């Protein structure tokens, strides 16, 4: 069923995705294995339907649904794998406070997202592509590398922002890159 979510644009656009998922679950599909894919692929209605079917809300699902109190409760007991995926999801959904909490809990901004969580890019790529300027600034302040390239297209976070028409974010990232280049070229001037 998780593959259905990856190619669900027709079903989602025609408002039948949740009904289709219900039919598949009744036929024995594993709803739990699908919930994270729904979160990563921004299928909130599908995710909510899976939770109604009894899927347990974990850290990544709480981030996707902006359930801050559940996120706060789950963070101290989350595994490293759960935190890594939650970091990717919170970045994708613009969860500034959730990302800040994950950074404070030693999540590292300079690694690619986990498999199943847009692993071709970093949280900064996702954040830049979605245009979350405040979150981009937070990730950069906390050491997020602006020059890392995604593994599918070879684009930097600035490239992602430009591709998605997020001009203000792209310009902010360009300014960071220029300042870093200047500081590297003449460390006494930086």
From TrEMBL:
Signal peptide: none annotated. Pfam families: Ank_2. ANK repeats lie at residues 119-151. Transmembrane segments: none annotated. PROSITE patterns: ANK_REP_REGION, ANK_REPEAT. Keywords: ANK repeat, Repeat. Coiled coil: none annotated. InterPro entries: Ank_Repeat/CDKN_Inhibitor, Ankyrin_rpt, Ankyrin_rpt-contain_sf. SUPFAM superfamilies: Ankyrin repeat (SSF48403). This is Ankyrin repeat-containing protein. It comes from Granulicella pectinivorans. The lineage of its organism: Bacteria, Pseudomonadati, Acidobacteriota, Terriglobia, Terriglobales.
